[in-house]
Write a structure and sequence with these properties.
rod-shaped; CDK5RAP3; mainly alpha; about 75% helix; CDK5 regulatory subunit associated protein 3
């Protein structure tokens, strides 16, 4: 947790993020460090920026969870519909055979193959 001059505490859930911030702080230019110590408005701006980034990361985490739920729902729906699709394909093939037999019967037993209708 970081506390900037009595402002809101901001926690970082991932250690990689804090490592990145530490690295950025080491590389930061001297005037930024000076501004943190000397200019209260700069601290406020940095605090607001960090709060915005935290809010964005929380929104992205919520969106990720929502997408996982949608994916699971779609997979369940697919699993429920696959038997129906198999039955539909079977019935379609049976109907195609019946149509071929009927057409063949009308044309004196000639072989008939329906094209472009197979699934």
């Amino acid at each position: 947790m970081w506390r900037l001059r009595g402002h809101l505490r901001i926690g970082f859930p991932e250690p990689r993020l804090s490592q990145q911030l530490n690295e950025d702080a080491r590389v930061a230019q001297p005037h930024q460090t000076f501004n943190l110590n000397a200019v209260p408005r700069y601290v406020d701006r940095v605090t607001e920026l960090l709060q915005q980034k935290l809010k964005q990361s929380q929104l992205l985490a919520l969106k990720k969870e929502l997408m996982v739920q949608k994916q699971q729902g779609a997979l369940q729906e697919q699993a429920a519909l696959e038997p129906k699709l198999d039955l539909l394909l079977e019935k379609t093939k049976e109907l195609q055979k019946l149509i071929e037999a009927d057409i063949s019967k009308r044309y004196n037993g000639r072989p008939v193959n329906l094209m472009g209708t197979s699934l």
